[in-house]
Fold these 2 entries.
Entry 1:
Amino acid sequence: MQPDVTPARRRPSKEPRHAMPERDALQRAQDFVEVGLGYPEELARAEAERCLQCKNPTCIEGCPVNIDIKRFIGDILEGDYAAGVRTLKERNALPAVCGRVCPQEEQCEKACILAKKSEPVAIGRLERFLGDWELAREASERERPEVAEPSGKRVAVVGSGPAGLACAGELARLGHAVTVFESLHAPGGVLVYGIPEFRLPKSIVQAEIDALVAMGVEIVTDAVVGATYTLGELMDELPASAAREASLLDAGSSRSAPCIRELGFDAVFIGAGAGLPLFLGVPGENLNGVYSANEFLTRVNLMKAYDFPKHDTPVWRGRKVAVVGGGNVAMDSARTAKRLGAEEVFLVYRRTEDEMPARKEEVHHAREEGIDFKMLCSPLEILGHDGWVTGMTATRMELGPADDSGRRAPVCVVGSDFTIDCDTVIVALGTRANPVLTSSAEELELTRRGYIAADEDGATSIPGIWAGGDIVTGSATVIKAMGAGKRSASAIHDRLAVS
Amino acid sequence: MGRPFARRRPPRDAGVYCHLPARLVPKGRPVPFPVVQKRQLSDAVFEMAVEAPAVARKVRPGQFLMLRVGENGERIPLTFSDWDAEQGWVRFIFMVVGKTTHELSHRSVGEDIADLVGPLGRPTHLEGLGRVAVVGGGVGAAVAYPVARGMAEAGAEVTVILGARNADLLILGDQFEKLPISQLVVMTDDGSEGRKGLVTEPLKELCEAAAIDRAMAIGPAIMMKFCSATTRAYAVPTTVSLNPIMVDGTGMCGACRVSVGGETKFGCVDGPDFDGHLVDFEELMSRQRTYADDEREADAAYRKECSCNLT
Ligand SMILES: Cc1cc2nc3c(=O)[nH]c(=O)nc-3n(C[C@H](O)[C@H](O)[C@H](O)COP(=O)(O)OP(=O)(O)OC[C@H]3O[C@@H](n4cnc5c(N)ncnc54)[C@H](O)[C@@H]3O)c2cc1C
Ligand SMILES: Cc1cc2nc3c(=O)[nH]c(=O)nc-3n(C[C@H](O)[C@H](O)[C@H](O)COP(=O)(O)OP(=O)(O)OC[C@H]3O[C@@H](n4cnc5c(N)ncnc54)[C@H](O)[C@@H]3O)c2cc1C
Ligand code: SF4
Ligand code: SF4
Ligand code: FES
């Protein structure tokens, strides 16, 4: 019999979790260069040493896509990074991204056995280490997933965020011809227009997208499904006129006539995200200087307004900025405002820091960078003069008894109104489903809140159309969206194999 | 088999641009948006047609597109003035007011623009309108043109009122004349062509004579504001085509929000057409000025580089 290849159960290490080197808070708050520097090799090895290589690795359950964490850490221990990357990529196409932005403390690391007694293994940082190691290699040397023989089937993917990219990558690997339709001029979804450069460098996202393209995935930008194409058209047979044009082209005609792209896909996956920003609904919200986080971050990240006028899109650079909200989006907005030169940035949140949905690490970073947390405050009105924001009145809140969801609901403290002096307000209250696409297909069943109704695999009420990511769940996380995209890819593959 | 369209994409020099509305990523294999026609209508107003077949087959009057001229460019909205689904082009008319429109005016036939996406926004309501006055002010005439044409084709009795500061700034007059409309009234501030005065004067006369059932006003916010005020007195339902600042044009950012009847609406997805009697024009005009300083800076920097003597 083969000896048991799993290393002997390791003894719990006394060593504390290794901190990841970061740029100095004062310095980094001046620019858009990435904050976290990543583990150098020695630190990665030392952190991997902390892993017990458990017989029953609970960490894996904590990861929404069930990465074999124990194995990839084992690969690091053995110094076989290429194997580690392969392990990661079995489940997660974008390790360099997830290692940076996953809320690990809520997921894999929360479930790590060490978390019970001391601190969990820094699984995310190790994942990032491998992801970066891979990206640092020459493109030609990188792990290339084996692409199956062409199946002759064509799948359309709507949206190029994490859900769409994961679905496209998986389908391409399985041999299907994939075309991704993206409404913006650049692919990546929230990864490019939302999450800032200092947390997720865009070159990493681009490298991952290039890898997909190298696998044969076709990405069409500037294509709004629901406007440029309808969902129905994506599924349609080739329109007769287009077929005629196509045959003319095949016959070598050089007639100057454009032809319509052939549509008629065998299946469609919708990963359109939840892109409709919510506002406060208080007076003064349409004053100049009030932004949705989406607009603010899009101007700065996608349109590169921080580099104005080299890039043409402007953004109003406030001196005193109030950001309303407590999630990752609020943290990103606050830290971005700081980097654009704001003297003071306030974070206005209804509950306390403990209830904030943002990642703990980002809350910590924001504090280090000098963001002023105003907890238990709720805006009442945005004040203005001459059309511009001059301040905000808010009321103090206190936490009442826990509600059904177990969260303690904030209630107003009567008579506690006060004014915050500010010239910019950024509203980061979350998003809803954008109706542009869904309203173009009446048969598509929606949930009460306007999201697409879909089952576990993402199958929607229309046969042949799947959906996943934020457009199904509402705002969630990168890895959950990717998991959904990948699950749908398998389901689509199964269906296409049958037909 | 596998990837049929890759095989079928014709070579560029065959003069056939294929099927894609957009660019392919990465940048190595672009399917660009070539300019196929350009015409200068007045000192600062240009008409341009761009090949965009997937977009062209979908456009309806009143809808708009977003474009970026170059790689570092801003996304700006422009309304379709004309399109041809068969030949696969879309046309728009723009006035040079800042850097992006200036740069666009220098794209010549055969050159590409980086991005063009659409059609966006809700189409203008055209059917069952009865007697309509369509008012086009300045470059708004470009938007009024397909709207008036669409209304007339749908059986409405259309009176077009065109306004401009002077004869040089008046655009599309000859094209309107060819439409099956019942009347064309031309107004200039200085009387250098047509009648002297503002577009609100003939509009008021029409209202007074009870000669129209509805009105549509398209142009600068201030003009739409006064047109709406004029018709309000006579309770003539009035639609305006708003032009707030936009970023994505697809409902994702909220930059384009406008107050209509006390409610916040997104200009790009709920509009651009709204009930003129309910729009908060003061707010619209204030929001349009948000980036005035930055725009001046970008514009000045671009002019320094640019050797032309445009306006
Ligand atoms: C500022 C910010 C910070 C965040 N930080 C984190 C974090 O740290 N960790 C984390 O795990 N999660 C974070 N999230 C959440 C995470 O980014 C999302 O849950 C995830 O991106 C959802 O992926 P998706 O693919 O479903 O949608 P998206 O990423 O939203 O992508 C959807 C894409 O579809 C396109 N699209 C939409 N409609 C159409 C249409 N009609 N036709 C064609 N294309 C269309 C959009 O342009 C977009 O590119 C953050 C989100 C934001 C906004
Ligand atoms: C739905 C819609 C349809 C339009 N149709 C036409 C048209 O058919 N022809 C035409 O000439 N103009 C049209 N406009 C206005 C046109 O978009 C602006 O003139 C253009 O964006 C100016 O860009 P710029 O860089 O040249 O000028 P800038 O110097 O940047 O700005 C000059 C002024 O243009 C407006 N503007 C600037 N950026 C934007 C933006 N991103 N979105 C909207 N407005 C902006 C502002 O009010 C600003 O003060 C339309 C606007 C909207 C919203
Ligand atoms: S993908 Fe996210 S949750 Fe899963 S192991 Fe990696 S960091 Fe943890
Ligand atoms: S639970 Fe923690 S210690 Fe155990 S295998 Fe997973 S990461 Fe290692
Ligand atoms: S332009 Fe962004 S929502 Fe309308």
Note: Chain B touches chain A through 67 residues (CB under 8 Å).
Entry 2:
Amino acid sequence: MSAQPYRLATGGLIDRKRPCHFRFDGREYTGFAGDTLASALLANGVSLVGRSFKYHRPRGLLSSGAEEPNALIELRRGAAREPNTRATTIELFDGLEAQSQNRWPSLGFDLLSLNRWAAPFLGAGFYYKTFMWPASFWEKVYEPLIRRAAGLGRAAGADDPDHYEKSFAHCDILVIGAGPAGLMAALTAGRAGARIILANEDFAAGGQLHGDGGNINGTAAAAWVNGVIAELAAMPHVQIMPRTTIYGVYDGATYGAVERVNDHLLSVPAFEPRQRHWRIHARRAVLASGAGERPLMFANNDLPGIMLASAARTYLQRFAVKPAGRVVIATSCDDGWASVDAALAAGVAIAAIVDTRSEVDEALLSLGRRSGAAIYCGGDVVKAHGGHRVGAITIRNATGSNTRHACDGVWMSGGFSPLIHLTSHLGARPQWDEQLQAFVPGQNLPAGLAVAGAACGDFALGACIAAGQRAGIEAAQACGFSAPAAEPILCPETSAAVGVITLPRTAAGPVFVDFQNDVTAKDIALAAREGYSSPELAKRYTTLGMATDQGKTANINGMALLAAARGKSIAQTGTTVYRPPYTPVSFGALAGHHRSKDFRATRLTPAHHWAQEQGAVFMEAGAWMRAAWFPKAGESDWVESVIRETKATRSSVGLCDVSTLGKIDIQGADAGVFLDRVYCNTFSTLAVGRARYGLMLREDGFVMDDGTTSRLAPAHFLMTTTTSNASKVMQHLEFCHQALWPDLDLHMVSVSEHWAQYSLAGPRSRDVLQRLVDRQHDISNEAFPYMGAREITISGGLPARLYRISFSGELAYELAVPARYGDATVRALMAAGGEFGITPYGLETLNAMRIEKGHVTGSELNGTTTARDLGLGRMMSTKKHYIGRVMEERPALRDERRWQLVGLKPVDRSHRLKAGGHLVGRHEPAVTANDQGYVTSASYSPMLEQWIGLGLLSAGDKRHGEIIRACDLLRQSEVEVEVCNPVFFDPKGERLHG
Amino acid sequence: MRIGCPYCGERWNDEFVVLGDADAMMKHPAEATFALFYDYVYLRDNPAGRHRELWYHQGGCRQWLVVTRDTLTHAVHGVETARCAAQDIEAAS
């Protein structure tokens, strides 16, 4: 095990007493608590961390934060493996395992790096131009090849073993970022009493203060940060959320956030989530996201060892790691010179300092001269040399002559760009600020959002702190708090970070602009030349900014190149607009607990456990679990169970749980009038104690739903709906009442879950019921005929409702009891029916029996059928107005060629019929042009002893007796069928009245 | 987006179900003609800007609301119950 050869002896915000052992590409290393994976790798001398997307070029760490384009790795193993994770944001923990990606066979020796010799051919638009034909090659040849060659990490390929949560939060002020500006905003507003959420992407507060150090108010920056955090933590109305990224701004002052609750631990503690997704509603927000440094553009600027100057200082001072031994500092702004002191303090030799500006402040120059470095003002870097790491660079001085300097690191600064992504999530366009040489937040910011500090162009530390205080005061006042005046804070005067964007002057090799997507300066010039010259077009043609880092280090350089290629200024060409998410969000966090069986709640009927005890096989019906059949020993196929259940029901008595039907209680003086308007048939004339089948249309004339509605009292109706439409019908009725006819005197409420309901069907059903129903209620055929509906009591006083309605075509009842008595009632019914051989049946038997009777259900009430199509045309009243009446009369809906409900019987009784098959003429080919309808429902009929079905057939009413074919091309089945009356069994309905 | 329900207060939009143009859908045609009903059922404007829409507070009080929403910015400029709006429509006609 190595001893961290590049770790400095002292300093850094790391805990040297807590070593963390970790593996990268199978090799063991050690770092410390407080490290990121990136800083720990650097401490161990690992500078090659990845291969580039397209050309497989060796890549090292460019940055130290969320903007990192190169160091994408696969974190963890097996099912927990997470691809494309930035090593710069992974908090090191003991036992961490990570692997580099997009290399084969190894990171050091990658065969596909041959791609870079093909680089001249792989420029922008290469795929569009090359893989044009033959079209069939795209899917089979080109795409698999390209996917293998160009790619990122591998998905785990197994279910994520961890849990994720969704949470909601509300606050007065959301402060985004805990650098100097964010801390001051939170502190100032917190002292005023506002409820604050301080969200910080990093695990440590302080932002760039940890890279640049210095004293604030007389104490070291790190101690000052700790003091502010301690004061905030002591305020009960302030919530500090470290490891939390605000990734998006949404309408209504809503912010999306991901909190990495346990990503920094080897395994997630029991009952805790790995990540938590937050939806935060904040009256005001302060964006203090800071600024990001821009790379310089020169040939081979992507070699490992070349990194952003501010990142190098962060590695030196926050992590006490020496990223290089001998460096060249290349800059286009004063801030780059801040690296000189940092390098010398850590014992890093400086070979040369290049500033692209000809005029540089004398104080900086004397600082540089003291370091012993060669200084080039008005010069630039021409090219970096090296294989797996930079070994030398060639610098051109102001007069144009080249010098080569040996080095193992280049620290570059092309100036800073404010991190303004969140400001444009609702559409505001960034504005170019010529003075700052950067895009700054534009007009029309999201309501309530203010920007402070470096994110707004206040690059100097003093300005940053003052801006944070100001933003805190303004936000607190806007929320109704009186904020005290800001107290002055003493801090070092930092150098200006305004950098001139310097375009590459020579083409001595590939000049990378977008490191993650391998977009070079040449690609951008090519896009402009070929006409893709607006920022949005150039982005898509070259893929600039389209990788997982969304071009955080690339976009502004890219826009500068594009503007130059068109001979315009950046202000004239503009930029692309940022969209959420700011950094990638895992699907796990967005899904939370809503996955697999927990995708939505499962609804169980009160008799569910009873059905389980009977060995029921369940199926999902919407959110409900319903018994599909009850297999007995020896039955190997559901058809066998259906035959037994049907025959038992039709010969004696069967029981089915129908609790899932929608039930709506409607009461009021105008309830009957209301029902007349929402149903196509009449209900105001229904006698108390009677039920009626009702058909509800949509306003466009098509059928919406059906069900029976009973009148329990003059002003009291109980409507039933199909299981699947229960909430839709409720919503529709509420709309009709509240928005169309608010004057009608009625109230309604859904009582679907209040009542457990059981269907008893078969010639002995009344015999069973009579053993439960209390004596005073006469349920004889005369006293309680077909379509009776009555409130009764059972088992000695339990209130219940009894309906004599039938879906099976048998003498049948539905008995409803309060839900909490459902389980007891089903057991009592089974006991009472014992001597008649009562048989529980499930959805499959229900379906077989209703198809035998030609009753329609969701398969036929599918939103494309009218009452006429279903043979229910006579139900539509001509004496009243109701929803759907006018549009139902449209001539096209009365066309005789419309698809109408028919029965279908295979000509060969041994053939099986399947729902979904399309109907064509007996001798016609099965092609779309000959399509005459389809099979909507099919089942084996125990009574007819063959497969039967219902279907919708063009002009079907007039074609009974005709032989046609049902063709199911997906399942390769073709069956000759006879068209017949949809009522297969007991067509006169004699059994109902038994 | 958040909607201020007159009964329940300001709530996240996922408690609500949207139906569409309130003024179009709440004005049932006075005469039963195809032309009037065709417009009523199918014809909708798609304005850029303020739009009165029907939203149902399914995850709350089950009231239908008329929400005045800017379709360009999603800003909510006013909320009233459909019941009140319907009475206004009736009074105006």
Note: The CA atoms of residues 29 and 35 of chain B lie 10 Å apart.
